[in-house]
Design a protein that fits this description.
Elements: H1 2-26, H2 31-70, H3 72-80, E1 85-88, E2 94-97, H4 99-104, H5 125-130, E3 134-138, E4 141-149, E5 155-161, H6 163-174, E6 177-184, H7 187-191, H8 196-216, E7 220-225, E8 228-234, H9 238-243, H10 248-253, E9 266-271, H11 277-293, E10 298-302, E11 307-311, H12 322-337, E12 341-345, H13 352-368, E13 373-376, H14 385-394, E14 400-401, H15 403-409, E15 414-419, H16 430-435, E16 438-443, E17 457-460, H17 467-478, H18 485-499, H19 508-519, H20 524-530, H21 535-546, E18 549-551, E19 554-559, H22 567-578, E20 586-593, E21 596-603, H23 609-614, E22 619-620, E23 624-630, H24 634-646, H25 654-657
Parallel strand pairs: 9-10, 12-13, 12-15, 13-14, 15-16, 16-17, 19-20
Antiparallel strand pairs: 1-2, 1-5, 3-4, 4-5, 6-8, 6-9, 7-8, 10-11, 18-19, 20-21, 21-23, 22-23
Length: 675
């Protein structure tokens, strides 16, 4: 209140002068009006006088407290101190200031009664007093303000001008190096082109696009090897790069070509905020590996504790490199030979691809390498119950064991082979992984940030159709003499599941693997029977499909039925069937299981459903992904999914569907789905 009276005192004075003038004018014609106005003027004068006196007493009392705490000599010294200093009262009003504060902060005027908040716009006095100071920007200068409480309602604040040091620090941080490693994803495919002119044209134009992109953002460009480049930026460029949404990804794909089966793409790994240039370069390589592991055609930015991703709409390119598979198989053979037991484990809610892969590896390990092996699975939670039951009927071996049994068998020499997943968050039983000291990973899903990093062998092929396809290739080197027609059928069923009957993610290697399995006796009739449904399951799928709604070319179906035992399989099948509806580019089927809401997401390649599911804590593949939301209602989960769909640019990319008719001059609109 004291501060308010002091602040409005000039207005009271003006008001008093005005009312006195009116009283003099009114005296000529109405004595009553004159008296009223004079009384009002006198009351205004009294209020001003009382307010000034009260505020002066407030100042005097506050200063006395400050002098008592600081000492008279110190208080006098503060007045000549070459740092702005103020003392505030109980209302955070300035009751005393030194010469330096008046000259620098107040422009030479008397600022008594002003609120100190005016001079610390980005913080509060309470925050300053509770901490070790605060950064304050006032005018064109930057200060570190330090507060010291002298009494319950009296405080002193020191304004230390460190503009130079803060600007120097800011410039240092903004000039820190950022290393970008760029890789021409499918350079090998173009190098194998018989048309030398076309091959040279593509490589030169891709390098030209990368050089122009580096020059546009003041980067230092350096070619490392054929198809790999390094660019050095400054930290200040990161915001510009993200605002540009890394348009280089589209610029490379828009290079006009003739008679080619694929478009050129690049992947970029960026390392920033590292302690040294060497560490920054290492992080950029790690980020590039992550981008390539997620299918390429995207940017991954790595800092100390997180990754950020941009792009990722294009499907990966199959690389026919059986030399790498042979080398990986040789490494796995060495690990198996030095083991006393091999355990094979997949992801939770294991499917036919996961179990089929395990069966194929089990056959090679036990029959050809003569090593004991078991497949770890929770039979009550698997989706591949039909395959497990089928194998248990025809095999006399104890092929499958429960996780609690596996835990009792693990020793220091036990080898754990993880299939169809590479994240510890999705394992069938994480305690088995934690207890096993020797781990091998075989997976085809796009790389996740939280992946298994302590494996002896990490066989990761994001462009493979399925884990069963990868296992089929490995088996040919590990040993296939004991592979029966039923075990071959299990592998073929895994490939059939993940390719949706050889419709999605099929390449040359996929059909080669299928042909090999057929040669080994895999019966397609057996495979068909493994996917057969009961009448109840068929009705449940029909109910999901008929209840679906379309949002922005995305079909969304929900089921609150929590009693369906095979709802996971039914939901996946319903998601597949929804893709057959005209103009539907992606499908999402949501169903309840316990206190969780599970989502099965599918697409035909026009939408990267992996990016959608990652925003909900899930993951998967470009065309097949999923997520599990725990402790949430169906309505809230549905709202979260629709919000992602509405805020994402999901639409059909005609250039991806038909390269022969694509018009690269018009450009390709990218999905803006960022984790």
């Amino acid at each position: 209140m004291k501060k308010k009276v002091w602040t409005v005192t000039p207005f009271f004075i003006l008001y008093t002068v005005g009312i006195t003038a009116l009283a003099a004018f009114s005296f000529r014609w109405n004595i009553y009006v004159f008296v009223t106005e004079m009384l009002t003027a006198l009351l205004s004068i009294v209020l001003v006088f009382v307010g000034i006196r009260r505020f002066n007493r407030h100042i005097s009392k506050t200063i006395q407290k400050a002098v008592k705490k600081l000492g008279n000599d110190n208080f006098e010294y503060l007045n000549d101190f070459q740092v702005p200093v103020v003392i505030t009262g109980s209302h955070n009003d300035i009751v005393w200031f030194n010469k330096c504060f008046r000259d620098i902060m107040c422009g030479g005027r008397d600022c008594s009664g002003d609120s100190v908040n005016h001079y610390i716009p980005n913080t509060t006095p309470e925050h300053i007093l509770d901490s070790h100071g605060a950064d304050v920007v006032y005018g064109d200068r930057r200060y570190t303000v330090i507060g010291c409480p002298l009494d319950d309602d009296v405080s002193v604040f020191y304004f230390i001008d460190d503009t130079y040091y803060k600007e120097t620090t800011y410039e240092y941080m903004k000039s820190r190096p950022v290393v970008a490693t760029v890789e021409f994803d499918n350079v090998n495919e173009f190098e194998e082109d018989d048309d030398d002119r076309q091959k040279t044209y593509v490589i030169v134009n891709v390098e030209n696009v990368i050089q122009k992109w580096a020059a546009r953002f003041n980067g230092l460009y350096k070619k490392l090897s054929n198809g790999k480049y390094m660019i050095l930026f400054e930290e200040r460029i990161i915001d510009a790069l993200t605002d540009d949404n890394f348009s280089i990804l589209e610029e490379v794909k828009q290079i006009p070509l003739e008679n080619v089966i694929c478009k050129p793409t690049v992947s970029i790994g960026i390392g920033r905020c590292a302690d040294s240039l060497r560490q920054c370069e290492q992080w950029s390589r790690n980020a590039l590996d992550m981008a390539l592991g997620r299918g390429g055609d995207q940017v991954a930015i790595k800092t100390m504790d997180q990754y950020r991703f941009y792009g990722g709409i294009s499907q990966g390119f199959e690389k026919i490199d059986k030399v790498r598979t042979r080398v990986i198989a040789s490494s796995i053979i060495q690990q198996i030979r030095s083991s006393d037991l091999v355990l094979i484990m997949g992801h939770h809610n294991s499917d036919i691809d996961c179990i089929g892969t395990g069966i194929g590896l089990w056959s090679s390990i036990t029959k050809d390498m003569k090593k004991p092996a078991n497949i770890v699975v929770k039979k009550e939670r698997t989706v591949a119950g039909s395959l497990i039951s089928f194998m248990e009927e025809i095999s006399k071996e104890d092929m499958f064991i429960e996780p609690h049994t596996a835990l009792s068998l693990i020793t220091d020499k036990t080898l754990l082979i993880i299939v169809d997943t590479h994240s510890p968050d999705f394992l069938e039983e994480v305690n088995v992984y934690r207890k096993a000291s020797r781990v091998v990973v075989i997976d085809h899903h796009r790389m996740m940030v939280n992946h298994i990093s302590n494996s002896l062998v990490f066989f990761h092929e994001p462009n493979a159709s399925s884990a069963a396809e990868m296992a089929t290739e490995l088996i040919q080197y590990i040993g296939d003499k004991g592979l029966t027609q039923y075990e071959a059928a299990a592998l073929l069923a895994g490939i059939t599941l993940d390719t949706k009957n050889f419709v999605l993610k099929t390449g040359v290697r996929t059909f080669e693997a299928a042909a090999y399995l057929r040669q080994r006796g895999a019966d397609t009739v057996i495979v068909k029977r493994l996917f057969s449904n009961s009448l109840d399951n068929y009705k449940a799928k029909y109910k999901l499909v008929t209840g679906a709604e379309i949002f922005d070319n995305c079909a969304v179906a929900c089921s609150d039925d929590n009693n369906e035992e095979d709802l996971r399989v039914t939901a996946a099948q319903a998601a597949d069937d929804l893709l057959s509806i005209s103009n539907v580019t992606a499908s999402f089927v949501m169903y309840k299981q316990g206190d969780s809401v599970n989502i099965s997401a599918r697409s035909l390649g026009d939408v990267n459903v992996q990016l959608v599911m990652e925003q909900l804590g899930g993951g998967g593949h470009h065309t097949m992904a999923g997520a599990q939301l725990k402790g949430i209602t169906m309505a809230k989960a549905r709202a979260m999914l629709l919000n992602i769909i509405e805020n994402s640019d999901i639409e059909i990319n005609e250039a991806e569907k038909n390269d022969d008719e694509a018009s690269f001059e018009s450009g390709i609109k990218r999905e803006k789905l960022i984790k």
